[in-house]
Amino acid sequence: MKKPLKKLDFEKILNILREYDIESNYEKVNIIPDNQELHNKISTYVDTKSFTNRAVLGIDIYRYGMFKHLEQTLIPAIFKIFFEKTIRLCLESNEFVFQNYTKEIIENSFISTGDGGFLILETPLHATFFAINFEVVVRSYNSFHLFPRLRKFIGSISLRYAITYDTLFHFDNNFYGSAIINNARILNKDNLNRCLLDEKSFNWFLTNIDGIENLQVYTIHDIANIYDFQNYNNQPIESGKNEIVSEEKTRLNGIINSDILKIGQIQSKEVNLNIYNLHLQVSLTIHSDSENEDERLMTISLGNLNTSGI
Q1: N or C end: fewer C-beta atoms under 10 angstroms in the chain?
Q2: CATH superfamily for domain 51-302
């Protein structure tokens, strides 16, 4: 289990400010004060070196502003349907990877923007698996398997994704930090509904599985050997469902193809970020929510192969 996120308390910060600063000063002559004592105290309390990394999955409905007014009004409800069904898929069909999560934990780790949002997860692998399941749900909707009458008048929906891996902290029941800032900037730069990764996410896969391309030949046992999963309970490997990666190597289902290419750089907080374009093809069996338990084998693509710059 990763170290918990650094939590900053507003009252503690306010108390430090009141002790080492002046809340209000309206004298006729302004003098710039010495701030060293305050700086030292704030630095000690915040302790940026104690911040830990988290993966952020950014999801954005492509060209939301182009929908008509009625359709725009319904998009947040549709996104919530997609999100809740994706949570169910992650918890029921990817039990080993998401064993530290519940529906409530995932919901409380999501920052909604109405037509998308930012989800905080442990590792880039969690973010990739959530994105795959989300895209499966969207494909089910687009191909008239999920609320087909709604699909007919709303039209098809496409999404763009971004995965970043950087520092985060928790303040006042919300999340802040470089991982979210970078993610938002990557999403804003993309107009080709792709799945984009920052370099730290790319390097996480490179370090832990010799590159994200190896997901197409990895088994759930290989996943269990990743450093960040060392303390996970292996019981769900034998008794649970793990549909994206199975117990044996196969190219017949799960992740059947993986491509990643560096496509350019963007600037975030005066730092250049290398950006990578991810394309995965995944074959999964989709089960009906109804009592008749219908199922269908479906192949989806996460991202696309358009390598135009960013």
Answers
A1: N
A2: Nucleotide cyclase, GGDEF domain (3.30.70.1230)
